[in-house]
């Protein structure tokens, strides 16, 4: 998927220093990666591939909170719409990587699978919003494959994969990008608020550019 239309939204910020008002203009450059229609079409393609490969293999889908929720929701709805006889089972894990703003740290698993879930003879399909450095998904993959969980196999399916020297690669990636802070469909703009942009139904690169 190639990058497409660029939108510029201008905003005015006022900063007060004693009795003077300094006015700074800046542009918010929003470069669209995928429209809602393109995402819908790509999710349908991913759903078809998963149905063909895993319908009769009893996979467990694992959604990584919070970012993967919009992608997982649309994917599960599409799978059951395309094949009403496929009843996907979904569980949830939570990891953390990003600290304040856009800085990354060492990934941690903060919410594990429920203890009663037995995955020792099952393929686990991990769903996430983005594969960036790959550290988080590599941690989750090792965790699921190791005792006491001992998954038969772990496959990574992501909505966006960054073209970089990642430690893991996705079995299926919806879209690929090279650089930029990506927002929408689960990915937030933490520089604004913690939830900014997460529930947009399209994906874009957000950058502040002074003018």
List the helices and strands and how they pair.
Blueprint (H helix, E strand, L loop, with lengths): L5 E12 L2 E15 L1 H19 L5 E6 L3 H14 L6 E10 L5 E8 L11 E9 L3 H11 L7 E10 L9 E6 L4 E2 L19 E8 L1
Helix pairs in contact: 1-2
Question: What does it look like?
Answer:
Helix content is 21%, strand content 41%. It is α/β, with parallel strands linked by helices and 211 residues long. It has a domain at 36-179: 3-Layer(aba) Sandwich (Rossmann fold). Helix 3 (135-145) links the parallel strand 6 (123-131) and strand 7 (153-162). Helix 1 (36-54) packs across helix 2. The protein starts with 5 loop residues before the first strand and ends with a strand. Residues 1-27 have low confidence and may be disordered.
